[in-house]
TrEMBL record:
Residues 1-142 form the PUM-HD domain. This is PUM-HD domain-containing protein. GO terms for cellular component: cytoplasm. SUPFAM superfamilies: ARM repeat (SSF48371). One of its GO terms (molecular function) is mRNA binding. Pumilio repeats lie at residues 39-74, 75-116. GO terms for biological process: regulation of translation.
């Protein structure tokens, strides 16, 4: 009975189900968060392109462990030869917010890799309504990085 209700609820009220998942990701126990993230792995790109599911992916990035975030980012980046998942996400009305969340939550090494992948497409992204959001975020990150580097250069004792 419980399983039947669970699947029926998921099919009838997808937005409510997504809200429950977001709540568990934010307030649940680490093993509960990990179970959700593990279940979603392999579907990150597709889910990021859906209105309610994209919010769940953002919560995964915000509240997941560094290793879980790395796995999610790796899935979004695809292989080194193909840039297609990330490209598609940057142009999508919902997935572009997931890419922005990645830029907010990733560590410095991931950020460098992602920015290198995005830089190649900056001019093309300016032509897309949702790609413009990514361009603005990247420009802010670059400006902030330049300010940080000049601050550290001027004040080496604070580094």
């Amino acid at each position: 009975m419980h399983i039947w209700f669970h699947f029926t609820f998921k099919l009838i009220c997808p937005s409510y189900f997504q809200i429950i998942l977001q709540h568990v990701l934010e307030h649940g126990k680490p093993h509960e968060r990990s179970a959700i993230i593990k279940k979603l792995t392999g579907q990150i790109v597709q889910m990021s392109q859906q209105k309610f599911a994209s919010n769940v992916i953002e919560k995964c990035l915000t509240f997941g462990t560094p290793a879980e975030r790395q796995a999610l980012v790796d899935e979004m980046l695809g292989t080194t030869d193909e840039n297609e998942p990330l490209q598609a996400m940057m142009k999508d009305q919902f997935a572009n917010y997931v890419v922005q969340k990645v830029l907010e939550t990733c560590d410095d090494q991931q950020l460098g890799l992602i920015l290198n992948r995005i830089k190649v497409h900056l001019n093309a992204l300016k032509k897309y309504t949702y790609g413009k959001h990514i361009v603005l975020r990247v420009e802010k990150l670059v400006a902030a990085g330049e300010r940080r580097i000049s601050f550290l250069t001027l004040n080496p004792a604070t580094a």
